[in-house]
Amino acid sequence: MKDTPHGKKKVMVDEAPSDFASRVRQAFRLIVHIPDYDTYVRHLKETQPGKPVPTYEEFIDMCQKRRFAPDYLIGKC
Q1: CA 11, CA 43: separation in Å to the nearest integer?
Q2: Backbone angles phi, psi at 32, to 5 degrees
Q3: pLDDT tens, residue by residue, 37-66
Q4: Closest CA to 64 of 32, 40, 42
Q5: Could you give the CA distance from residue 37 to residue 1 in angstroms, rounded to a whole number?
């Protein structure tokens, strides 16, 4: 990864999911508002190395609680 002028790391093309099935899974998860667990774990380890990593079940529960929270704006009239 290379640093950008803003201090954030830029993902290079060769580090993105390489096979078609991975891309389809990732797109589906974004459509149903469930972020990718592996991406979240990698982000958490890079940005907050001392923070404990939740299990997959805890991660899904956290995402669902956030998605259906009363103050979540997407999909509301």
Answers
A1: 12
A2: -95, 15
A3: 888 899 999 999 999 999 999 998 988 888
A4: 32
A5: 20
Domain boundaries, the chain: 18-77
Residue 44: both structure tokens together: 């958490």
Q: For the CA atoms of the chain, what is the radius of gyration?
A: 15
Q: How many CB atoms lie within 10 A of CB 65?
A: 10
| Mean pLDDT (the chain, rounded) | 74
The C-alpha atoms of residue 54 and residue 56 are separated, in whole angstroms, by 7
How many residues make up the chain in this entry?
77
What's 77's DSSP letter? -
pTM tops 0.70: no
50: number of Cβ within 10 Å: 5
Instruction: Copy the structure tokens of residue 50.
Output: 């001392």
